[in-house]
Amino acid sequence: MTSNLSTILEKWAQLYKPISHDPKRGSKDKAYYEIKTINQDSEFVRNQNTAKSPCMAYSVLVDAEMNSTKVVNYRHTVYFMSRAKTRSLAKNAKQDDELGTDQQLLMDDMVQDLIQYLRDLKHYGRCPITGETYDTPTMLSLRGLSLDKCEWGSLPVKYAEWHLMELSIDQDQPLPAIGCINKEKYHLPVSEETTVPDGSPSGETTVPEAPASGDNP
């Protein structure tokens, strides 16, 4: 089963100064989102005109491939978004291009900082910034994460002045061994109860004991 990295990613977004995400509901400094894909309706898309920049989003969609009888490969997708306000005058075209380049370099830097954070967290078992530890289920979400083979790249600008970068991280999760089906997830057939006559465990008819000597029959 895939792991959910949202707890770790949102915490990083809070600690990381260029993003400085505020998780409070309705905060104008919200800079972390959970979405399906970057080009579908989401809270970020609806609020793109007022959203804080830079910001990031984590895709909750499952992307998996089983290429052996022992391992399932999952792919996690993280988006970084940064807004560069463009100018319409032709004389500022060169400056616009430079602004776009700056945003790409900024997001590339953020991607590498996130990967380094995840690598240190996985290696040391605690937050490399605060020294705090995450709970066990959260730390287990790092198991099998391939942080030495990440892929990222720029995406075409889709939303007005926003520049986008996509980070993909693979994760290998073991398959249960053959014969290890979790039967608690299934409806099992109910066997018929055996009726035992006369209250005898063996099903045989019991014969009452004869009264002891001197007792009334």
Distance between the termini: 71 Å
> Number of helix segments?
4
Overall residue-averaged pLDDT value = 83
- Helical fraction equals 10-25%
Our estimate of the beta-strand percent is: 15-25%
pLDDT under 50 segments (min length 5)? 202-207
Basic shape: globular
Description:
With about 220 residues, the protein is an alpha+beta fold. It has helices at about 5-15, 45, 95-125, 135-140, and strands spanning about 30-35, 55-60, 65, 70-85, 150-155, 160-175.
Task: Please outline what is shown here.
24% of the residues lie in helices and 20% in strands.
Notable traits:
217 residues; 4 helices; alpha+beta; 6-stranded mixed β-sheet; 24% helix
Show the helix and strand layout:
Layout: H1 6-15, E1 32-35, H2 43-46, E2 55-59, E3 64-66, E4 71-83, H3 93-124, H4 136-140, E5 151-155, E6 162-174
Parallel strand pairs: 1-2
Antiparallel strand pairs: 2-4, 3-4, 4-6, 5-6
